[in-house]
Amino acid sequence: MKLTDVIRRPLITEKTTIQREDGRTIVFQVATDATKVEVKQAIEKLLGSKVESVRTTLVHGKVKRQGRFAGRRSDWKKAYVRLRDGQKMPEFLEGA
């Protein structure tokens, strides 16, 4: 799996913004079959920051309705990446 396939996008929400204020935790949407080791390697190579720990969780898709038709959003995986002390936050997240 390529590094750009492992990391889908950074998650910018109210909760992740509060966690990012400590200067060490970033949250990403990752591939559902990606492991913690693959996420760590991808972050270290793409962002150039050393990773202390990675926590992952599966987010189950919601059931959505459009009139009488019901559909289901797909499940996805979230990774909480904690950087080591002294590592700087990537530039694309600082202004958000």
Output the keywords.
alpha+beta; 96 residues; four-stranded antiparallel sheet; 28% helix; single chain; two-stranded antiparallel sheet; 6 strands; globular
Note the overall shape: globular
End-to-end distance, in Å?
29 Å
Strands of the widest sheet, in order across it, are 1-2-6-3
Mean pLDDT: 88
Describe the oligomeric state of these chains in a short phrase: single chain
User: Segments where pLDDT lies below 50 for 5+ residues?
Assistant: none
Give the SSE layout:
Layout lengths: L2 H4 E4 L3 H7 L4 E6 L5 H12 L3 E9 L3 E4 L2 E4 L3 E8 L7 H4 L2
Antiparallel strand pairs: 1-2, 2-6, 3-6, 4-5
Structural overview:
Helices cover 28% and strands 36% of the residues. The chain is of the alpha+beta class and 96 residues long. The strands form 2 sheets. It has a 4-stranded antiparallel β-sheet with strand order 1-2-6-3, sandwiched between helices. It has a two-stranded antiparallel ribbon with strand order 4-5. A hairpin with a 2-residue loop joins strand 4 and strand 5 (69-72). The mean pLDDT is 88.
